[in-house]
Design a protein that fits this description.
The chain is mainly α and 439 residues long. The chain is built from 19 helices and two strands. α10 packs parallel to α13, α16 crosses α17 and α17 runs parallel beside α18.
């Protein structure tokens, strides 16, 4: 077994670890006592739910609160925690607690899994991930207690724990409402809204960014370039959509609730999948805007999936450099490496292709409107979990498309491509160059 593992690359280990966790989760959810009825959930129900949990997506084919038993919900929550932190990261943490030595391959895989800038200090970074995760999830748990205990009594403790972990891991699973109602019953509750939004943001900006901010605090100039890009991009992606939602959607709500709902939907749309408004009431423009946000996703090294905020930033900066006829792309007086630009373009093409052709495929199979299907596929590949309510009604073929998109979105499309094509050309010779007209 060790000999086989040594032959695998770090990207292959990450892809296989997620696949293995999905398999184990599926087997656990197939147990009769995982459902409230005591009957076997069925393979597709268990497989889809396990994939959605590990990939911290939140799309469901069965209502989490009414279909799954307490055991089933615990399995889902554990899968969410594993998926949010990353299977490799969690395995390394167990090894550290057991005082086991972390080898070079494991360190390299950890670096890939949490998007660390370098191999040095990767073990300390892993410890930080554990401490920060436990601290934030506990804080969220405490903040949610007054809301859920007031409504559900002692059971509210379980509700607070479940939603705290689900929010920080950007999973979007809930156990409080009927299917697809999510947190709509709490749309006017400031404490729950602010708690969930804070958890989503802290989980979605990336552990390296958080560590950078905590290390240098108010010394913004000392932040790494990635931290600056992540913070600025996230700020724009929260404020601008919130303004759109406030002025053009949710006009039927009172001003205070309208503002709260607008900000909440702006925060949750890119990563988490909770909703405090009826999404079917949105205009086509609003749905299109949400699709764009879902495809972007969170930031590198976070609990969120998607194309990533830094990818969007690099693409925009590259376009600006082209418009200005510059020979290179710069940001904050730093030149961006060519590899980052190539990866950003590749990610854009990969995610758009997966989202679009997945939506076209489901639309062709089901005979549903293309925009509705594109909304579901954007939610799946962005590991968001927002839905217009069609997922449980889809045929097995369409559900398999969503499962594949969730897996690709969480593991990372480029990670899987690198896992499949591991060889690199070692020849330093270059082919002759010839110009081609673009645009």
């Amino acid at each position: 077994m060790k000999a086989i593992l040594k032959r695998l690359t770090s990207t292959q280990l990450i892809a296989l670890s997620f696949a293995g966790a999905i398999l184990i989760g599926t087997l656990l959810l197939l147990l009769p006592f995982a459902t409230k009825s005591g009957d076997c959930a069925g393979f597709m129900n268990a497989f889809f739910t396990a994939t959605s949990s590990i990939c911290v997506t939140g799309l469901v084919v069965q209502d989490t609160s009414t279909f799954w038993s307490v055991f089933g919900q615990v399995v889902i929550l554990v899968l969410i925690q594993i998926g949010g932190m990353g299977v490799i990261s969690l395995s390394a943490l167990v090894g550290l607690l057991a005082r086991r030595r972390i080898g070079l391959l494991e360190r390299s895989t950890l670096q890939e899994a949490i998007s660390a800038p370098s191999l040095g200090g990767i073990v300390r970074m892993t410890r930080f991930v554990l401490i920060f995760t436990v601290t934030v999830e506990f804080a969220g748990f405490v903040m949610m207690l007054p809301v859920f205990c007031k409504q559900f009594g002692a059971v509210g403790i379980w509700y607070s724990l479940f939603h705290s972990i689900s929010a920080f891991c950007n999973a979007g699973f809930d156990i409080v409402g009927k299917q697809y109602s999510s947190l709509t019953a709490y749309a006017s509750n400031p404490l729950l809204n602010i708690s969930v939004m804070a958890m989503i943001v802290l989980g979605g900006i990336g552990f390296t960014t958080v560590r950078d901010v905590l290390k240098f605090r108010h010394h913004v100039r000392s932040y790494s370039l990635q931290t600056k890009v992540v913070l600025i991009t996230n700020a724009f992606l929260i404020v601008l959509p919130a303004l759109y939602f406030f002025f053009f959607e949710f006009n039927d709500k009172a001003t205070g609730e309208r503002l709260l709902t607008s900000v909440f939907q702006s925060v949750t749309t890119r990563t988490a999948g909770f909703n405090t408004a009826d999404l079917t009431s949105l205009s086509d423009t609003g749905l299109g805007f949400m699709i764009f946000l879902m495809l972007i996703g969170g930031s590198p090294g976070s609990t969120a999936g998607g194309m990533k905020t830094t990818t969007l930033a690099v693409l925009i900066l590259t376009a600006i450099s082209v418009f200005r006829r510059k020979d290179y792309t710069k940001c904050h007086n730093r030149r961006l490496p060519e590899a980052a630009i190539k990866n950003a373009v590749a990610l854009l093409i990969l995610y758009f292709s997966l989202f679009f052709f997945g939506g076209v495929g489901i639309s062709a199979i089901e005979g549903l409107p293309l925009l509705t299907c594109l909304f579901e596929t954007a939610s799946a590949v962005g590991t968001v979990g927002l839905t217009l309510g069609i997922t449980p009604t889809l045929a097995t073929g369409s559900q398999i498309i969503l499962i594949a998109l969730m897996y690709l979105g969480r593991v990372g499309a480029l990670t899987l491509v690198f896992a499949a094509f591991t060889s690199r050309a070692k020849n330093g010779a270059k082919l002759p160059e010839e110009k081609i007209t673009v645009g």
